[in-house]
Design brief:
This protein is an alpha/beta fold and 298 residues long. It has a domain of 203 residues: Alpha-Beta Horseshoe (Leucine-rich repeat, LRR (right-handed beta-alpha superhelix)). It is 44% helix and 9% strand. It has eleven helices and nine strands. The longest helix has 18 residues.
Length: 298
Amino acid sequence: MVSAEWEKEFASLVLTLGKKQTDTISCDGWRLNEENFSDLAAAIKGHNGITELKLDRNEVVNDGAHSLLYVLRDCKSLQKASMQYAHLEQMGAAVLASCVAHWPNLQQLDLWGNSIGDQGIVTVVNSLTEHQCNIRMLALSWNKITDIACGQGVSKALRKCHALRQLDLSQNFIGDVGIEHLSKAFEALKRLEILMLKCNRIGDHGVCVLIPALKGCRYLQTLCLQGNVISEIGLTKLLDDNIVTRVDVDITWNRIPKYSPKLSKLEEIRGASAATVAQPKSSQDVQDNQTSRCCTIS
């Protein structure tokens, strides 16, 4: 049943949906049950302009939830879908994938914390490429992804996601073998800005494969390798390739001695980069920027 805290809001939402069109469906943390999902599905039939769906912290595993997704499958306008901690697992992922394949305008997909597993993740990511892929943000952290999924289809599918700007694969079980597969995808993601690989099983070999693959990512701003099994060998690779001079690289909580001179050098570079970004622009810089914008508009 809907949490008592949200019961009135849910009733109001269903009533509103029955009377007029809406562009956002948000039930974050409402703990909807099968009957609630069925009521919601019935209420949104015929709503063709929905652009955002948020079902975080609900159990999207029952038939009612699946009926809601099937109703939304024909909603071509959907741009953002978030299902954090939605207990999707493999079966829910299969239903979601069948819907994602019908959402050609989807730009953001957040599946954080669903324990989907290898087979489910491969199914979902492959569904993104059923049409011209416009996905810009893909969050797949906490989903029990291993090297097997990376080799069985995730890497190949990601290569087609040319518009991708943010990719989060944190808190999984991806090791050096998985990074070898994924690196082929990273080479194709020219617009990538943020890459999160926190708390996996990436070692020195993984870093040595990863860094060359990211050289073509001109817009990359953030690379998080926090909480892996990287030693000073991997850190040396990061410093020698100079990626740390243009990208904010977080390599804390690895197997690098706390007082390593190379770690101190990395932190010094990160600090200098942060200071450069934080430095206020001069009036001439602002004027040049405005001139540039005017030229672009004209």
